[in-house]
TrEMBL record:
Keyword set, alphabetical order: Cell membrane, Membrane, Transmembrane, Transmembrane helix
Entry's localization field: Cell membrane
Name by which UniProt lists this protein: FtsX-like permease family protein
Domain spans labelled ABC3 transporter permease C-terminal: 288-405, 673-781
Gene Ontology CC: one annotated term: plasma membrane
UniProt GO molecular function: transmembrane transporter activity
Native source organism of the sequence: Mucilaginibacter gracilis
Annotated transmembrane regions: 20-41, 282-302, 338-360, 372-395, 426-446, 672-694, 724-744, 756-778
UniProt membrane topology term: Multi-pass membrane protein
Domain of life: Bacteria
Signal peptide segment: none
Length: 792
């Protein structure tokens, strides 16, 4: 019986090629997207879950509340030592100080220079995290100063035919480290992606104040502490001890604004307040998108299957007349559904494998193709097979199996027996509610991204090349400036600590106008030379520009700084003194406000001053139509000025775009999924129109015999479609408004969701759907009416 059902199912699918193609295509697209989204969810949910006792591993994070709330994954450097001395909650404690883009070089005859992410770590770090050693002893490798552990990737890159143990690395052309261990490569699903680990003793040696026991007033995002709690110790119990620790070691001014918390290892990847990569709400959004696509594909199948059932009435009648039972008919239709779904899953998985490289590029992931052969993905495919088969096949199978054999043989299957048009209407309304919901969401995201990236930021971000400068390069900067200015097309050059808008910000408490105590808020500090304003197009509204110097000589402040200080005019601030980080100098100028962070945050109080030893970047305004040769010329001059360094650069507009990485990825996914859902939705409309054309063929024939025009017949279909589309829109619009209003709350500067967004969504859907139903409705209206009436 089973073999017979499968063979019959296959014959029916081959016989109805168009029907099978539409169903398989819709299901394959929906299932392929669902599998890709499942792999993406699995990828993100797998981060750092491979560590032993990962449920007992925590990172200590901080929150400061001066005039605003600021979150940081960093804590004061002496925290680890103090906590270990005062409390016994932790089994292991390890400090880590991150260094990004550090210059390293090898020693010997063939010197290799490169930049890599590194970290100073205490030896206990490798007792907390399970990163296996290929060579050396992790517990002993970093006890002594001047030692390093590298990953296998770095070892093979630098010493392809040699043992890396005992080889030397030079940090910033100065500090020599001996490689004392080789780690197995860090898995891609880990947020701990440092490739070189250095002795923590060297951090203490080169950063004596920050590493000292008295540096509790300094919180840097790169200085982090990890704990592995003892079995049975609760996180809340540990957190309850932090206020007493803060009170004991921090200054009174800081103690009232410092708050420390334990962040579980499992949440590091998802908490964007502390530099997490993706928020859980985006994972939920992805899951719902995958679910919606599968639902729309199932709706297509149900509509087409029930429409097709009217053409299979005689087949059912013959089978039942020959003794076939309702159960046999049900199993036959379910077998056909299962064969179709299996085919769609295989095609969908093939499509997913083909587009995986593009998918990885879009979402900045590293999902391997062999992921599709692992049991979680295969199990998901089996679940999809069962669920989709039941969702898609159960209702058509029940309706078809219950046909009256006599009426079926006479071709008198009624609308109700064929499934009824009302259930089909409900399904189409649901389908196009989902489609319009996704279209509106996609339009809102696209408009917000366009607003964020194209709005006036208060400075010029276009055609700015940012070059990383080596440490202690102040003496060579005039030479570099003179040489770069000789390149045709370069109009402005500035040395600075960072661009006006940057994800790297320094904050300091300060005193104003000789007041005895620090202000209740901190100031965002930027260092730049006298070309900083002209290079970035910042506007001076009072006073004069700063002058380039090796030490601070005066400050520029922005309008927000004046508002925070309760000053009504820029002139009130001029020549008033600021004491920032121990430097007491007058305010010499006021600049117009500019956005220093993404649109997720407001404009901060800012002060700019010149201090050449803190210039880490060179900003160069290049021609709008610059070529590779222009960039090569800049690189050549840089290498000539700093022969022992690696030329690395970025473009300011790209750096700003990366601040919206999650939103842009979501936008691109939504646009792709909207396209796919529209394709699937059009197939669903084809199913509805096919049903209407079959069900109403006699009515159409009578109308044409009585003189009805092709246009009036087309309107017969269009009127039905219009009603369904408007109902779907009325459901989708308020739901989309609520969802996207909530999403926009993450932005301080955001668009308004106006009526044009909803009208655009309705117009797009109406146009595409009209095109989709046009062929079938036109075919029905042009059919010979005599053939349609003859069945009476």
């Amino acid at each position: 019986m089973f073999k017979n059902n499968i063979l019959t199912a296959w014959r029916n699918l081959v016989r109805n090629r168009l029907y099978s193609f539409i169903n398989i295509s819709g299901l394959a697209l929906g299932i392929g997207c669902a599998i890709l989204i499942f792999c993406l969810l699995r990828y993100h949910l797998s981060f750092d879950n491979f560590h032993k006792d990962e449920d007992r591993i925590y990172r200590v994070v901080s929150k400061t509340t001066y005039d605003m709330i600021d979150y940081s994954q960093g804590i004061p450097a002496p925290f680890g030592k103090a906590f270990g001395n005062d409390y016994t909650y932790a089994e292991k404690i390890a400090m880590r100080v991150n260094r990004t883009g550090v210059l390293f070089s090898t020693t010997g005859r063939d010197i290799k220079r490169f930049k890599e992410n590194a970290a100073y770590v205490e030896p206990e770090y490798f007792d907390i995290f399970n990163f296996p050693m290929l060579e050396g002893n992790a517990k002993q490798a970093l006890i002594a100063p001047d030692m390093a552990i590298v990953t296998n990737k770095i070892a093979k890159k630098l010493f392809p035919n040699e043992n890396a143990i005992g080889k030397q690395l030079v940090l910033n052309n100065k500090d020599v480290y001996t490689i004392n261990g080789v780690l197995k490569d860090i898995p891609v699903n880990s947020d701990q992606q440092q490739q070189i680990y250095l002795s923590y003793a060297n951090f203490k040696k080169h950063n004596q104040w920050q590493a000292s026991d008295s540096s509790w007033s300094s919180i840097s995002s790169g200085v982090q502490c990890f704990l592995k709690l003892k079995p049975g110790v609760k996180a809340q119990e540990v957190e309850n001890s932090f206020p007493q620790l803060i009170k004991k070691y921090c200054k009174p001014a800081d103690a009232n604004s410092y708050f420390f918390y334990l962040q579980p290892l499992s949440s590091i990847h998802f908490d964007t307040r502390y530099d997490g990569k993706i928020e859980p709400k985006y994972l939920w959004a992805l899951a719902f998108i995958g679910l919606f696509l599968v639902i729309t594909a199932c709706i297509n199948f149900i509509n087409l299957a029930t429409a097709q059932s009217l053409n299979r009435g005689k087949e059912v009648g013959v089978r039942k007349t020959m003794g076939g039972s309702t159960a046999q008919m049900f199993s036959q239709i379910m077998a056909e559904t299962a064969v179709l779904v299996i085919t769609a899953i295989l095609i969908g998985m093939g499509l997913a494998i083909i587009v995986l490289p593009l998918f990885n590029q879009l979402f900045h992931t590293e999902i391997a193709r062999n992921e599709f052969l692992k049991w979680p993905v295969l199990s998901f495919a089996v679940v999809l097979l069962i669920v989709v088969t039941l969702l898609s096949g159960y209702y058509p199978s029940i309706k078809l199996a219950k046909f009256n054999p006599v009426e079926a043989l006479k071709g008198k299957i009624t609308q109700q027996q064929g499934g009824g048009i009302s259930i089909r209407r409900v399904l189409i309304i649901l389908q196009f509610t989902i489609v319009q919901l996704m279209i509106i969401a996609s339009i809102v995201i696209a408009k917000q991204m366009r607003f964020s990236l194209n709005s006036d930021l208060g400075f010029n971000k276009d055609n700015i090349l940012l070059i990383d400068l080596p440490g202690k390069s102040a003496k060579a900067l005039p030479t570099l400036h003179n040489q770069l200015s000789q390149i045709p097309g370069i109009s402005n050059i500035s040395f600075c600590s960072s661009a006006p808008m940057s994800d790297s910000n320094d904050w300091y408490g300060f005193k104003f106008d000789n007041r005895p105590t620090e202000e209740a808020f901190q100031v965002n500090v930027k260092r730049g030379d006298d070309h900083y304003l002209s290079t970035f197009g910042l506007k001076l509204i009072a006073g004069h520009n700063i002058t380039s110097s090796d030490t601070v000589s005066g400050y520029l402040v922005n309008e927000t700084m004046l508002k925070k200080l309760n000053l009504s005019t820029p002139q009130e601030a001029l020549q008033k003194r600021l004491i920032v980080n121990g430097f007491s100098f007058p305010i010499v100028g006021v600049i117009k406000d500019f956005h220093n962070e993404s649109f997720h945050a407001g404009i901060d109080p800012i002060c700019i001053f010149s201090m050449s030893k803190d210039f880490y970047r060179c900003a160069v305004r290049i021609p709008a139509k610059s070529t590779k040769e222009d960039l090569l010329a800049i690189q050549t001059l840089f290498t000539k000025t700093f022969p022992d360094n690696v030329f690395s650069y970025s473009f300011l507009d790209k750096d700003i775009q990366e601040m919206y990485e999650s939103e842009i990825s979501l936008q691109q996914l939504m646009e792709a999924m909207v396209g796919i859902s529209i394709v699937i939705g059009c197939m669903g409309l084809y199913g509805l129109v096919s049903f209407m054309a079959v069900q109403r063929r006699k009515e159409i024939g009578v109308r044409k015999v009585l003189g009805a025009s092709v246009r009036s017949v087309l309107w017969l279909f269009g009127r039905e479609f219009s009603r369904l589309l408007i109902i779907a829109f009325l459901i989708a619009a308020p739901c989309a408004w609520l969802l996207m209003s909530h999403w926009l709350q993450d932005f301080v500067y955001r668009i308004n969701i106006d009526a044009t967004i909803f009208l655009l969504s309705l117009t797009i859907t109406a146009f595409i759907a009209t095109v989709a139903i046009g062929y079938t409705s036109l075919k029905a209206s042009l059919a010979n009416p005599i053939k349609n009436i003859r069945t009476e």
